[in-house]
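Sequence, please.
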């Protein structure tokens, strides 16, 4: 759990909980227990930070790479990342933590991996 808390600190987790949609409920019940959102978010942050593929996600995170990728896709469709970004900017701005006068917008090139996973 220490790795999860390092990648997703409490302050970030509190903000994320405000934008993440509720887990869907299976009407028939059963199935495997769903991994916690914080564990999956940590796995997603790890993949983004390290630059590995979903398949290379270490088993110590709990959720598999395919589970993390599936949740990433689910959250992307729900526009969670944009909402989270806006919330972080709003929270930092409200606390006086952002000085917009020093911000510059620049283009950034990012290379995408073929195959996506």
């Amino acid at each position: 759990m220490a790795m999860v808390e390092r990648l997703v600190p409490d302050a970030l987790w509190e903000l994320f909980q405000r934008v993440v949609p509720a887990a869907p409920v299976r009407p028939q019940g059963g199935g495997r227990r769903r991994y916690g959102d914080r564990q999956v978010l940590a796995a997603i942050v790890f993949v983004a930070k390290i630059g590995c593929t979903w398949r290379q996600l270490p088993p110590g995170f709990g959720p598999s790479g395919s589970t993390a990728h599936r949740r990433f896709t689910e959250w992307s469709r729900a526009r969670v990342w944009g909402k989270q970004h806006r919330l972080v900017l709003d929270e930092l701005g409200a606390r006086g933590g952002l000085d917009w006068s020093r911000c510059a917008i620049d283009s950034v090139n990012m290379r995408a991996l073929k195959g996506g996973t």
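The chain has a mean pLDDT of 82.
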